[in-house]
Amino acid sequence: MNCPKCGEKMEHGYVTAGCTSAGAMTRLxxxxxxxxxxxxxxxxxxxxxxxxxxxxxxxxxxxxVIASC
Length: 69
Ligand SMILES: [Zn+2]
What we know:
- This protein is an all-beta fold.
- The chain has one domain (1-69).
- The protein contains no helices and five strands.
- It is globular, with a radius of gyration of 14 Å.
């Protein structure tokens, strides 16, 4: 798959949430505006557990990520 932004070849992979410093699992979330307070107004894209992930592609050149949740 080629990047729709710059045309470079994209690599296949997975986007997933990490852990907080306390070890708590997080999830991927979508915000329709830049979030000032996490969790308020978010749309969950994955579950907390089992660890949700989104399969997609990443462009190393322009850092564009395209993923399906
Ligand atoms: Zn690109």
